[in-house]
Amino acid sequence: MRLFEEIKQLRSFLWTQKAAGKSIGLVPTMGALHAGHLQLIAASKAENDITVCSVYVNPTQFNNSADLAKYPRTLAKDQEMLAEVGCDVLFAPSNQEMYQLPAQLKFDFGALDKTLEGEFRPGHFSGVALVVSKLFNIVQPHRAYFGQKDYQQLKVITKLASELLFDLEIKSVPIVRESDGLAMSSRNQRLSEQGRQKALVLFHSLQFGKQQLKAGKGLAEVKHLVKAKCDAVHDVRLEYFELADVENLSLVESVRNGTILLIAAFVGDVRLIDNLMMDE
Ligand code: PAF
pLDDT at residue 19 above 90? Predict the structure, then answer.
């Protein structure tokens, strides 16, 4: 596997590959890789000649400096994992390399980034859009791969790519769960043994909510029950539990075709998100 830290070198390597007719898949990550990321790499490898994985903890998407400081950074291990699964290129730039000029561009996705994560993490999606645009420009991949755990991010990036006419396909890959249902996330690495158990309340709340709604219970009552379920676990603080349209993520009040349940909660000081399609 080739490691690049500089944009110029990566661009020149990819230019040669593209000139030789090779297709390029990009898997953008913030590192602390887990099996969910490896699914993205596998999906890219199946559809492209060259897979580039970027590992970069992007400061502009953190609205809380403590969260940025605590974000797990495990580059040496990430590099080993990527080499093992046959990733072709690791791009691990510095902040100086990615932000040669201070970040001033702001993105606004209308209603899509004002709800759910956007409401609780103001500016988050603008930072995501900025760094993803940079990565698309640097790598100019044929396809880029994103996980469905960050469902709203997937929708934001799909809109970004289509509005800015990026000449690439956005591919989404289903959530990968631990055997007990916990959605894989880099942030899980920050959970204690006890916290890891408590974090299951997110997936259990989604399953419970789905089952109650399907059984005909009203959303307001289900929300109330989910809040009580989370409150019952010491150190868990529910931020939101919402039912939304799968396409535009506008919040809906009752189940219909094409809806998704989304949850965000703190387990101690670790913020986790998860989601579950109502139709599957
Ligand atoms: O999902 C992530 O890990 C990040 O938000 C992304 C897409 C790599 C942008 O920094």
Answer: yes
pLDDT in tens, 129-138: 999 999 999 9
Q: Can 204 be counted among the known catalytic residues?
A: no
Q: Global pTM? A: 0.97
CATH topology of domain 2-173: Rossmann fold (3.40.50)
Q: Whose CA is nearest to atom 1 of ligand 1?
A: 29
Binding site membership of 126 for ligand 1 (Cβ less than 6 Å): no
Secondary structure of the chain in HEC code, one letter for each residue: CEEECCHHHHHHHHHHHHHCCCCEEEEEECCCCCHHHHHHHHHHHHHCCEEEEEECCCHHHCCCHHHHHHCCCCHHHHHHHHHHCCCCEEECCCHHHHCCCCCCCCCCCHHHHCCCHHHHCCCHHHHHHHHHHHHHHHHCCCEEEEEHHHHHHHHHHHHHHHHCCCCCEEEEECCCECCCCCECCHHHHHCCHHHHHHCHHHHHHHHHHHHHHHCCCCHHHHHHHHHHHHHCCCCEEEEEEEEEECCCCCECCCCCCCEEEEEEEEECCEEEEEEEECCC
Q: Convert the pLDDT of each residue in 64-99 to its tens digit.
A: 999 999 999 999 999 999 999 999 999 999 999 999
Q: Of 26, 29, 125, 173, which is best to mutate to test ligand 1, by the most ligand atoms within 8 angstroms of its C-beta?
A: 29
CATH topology for 186-275 is Pantoate--beta-alanine Ligase; Chain: A,domain 2 (3.30.1300)
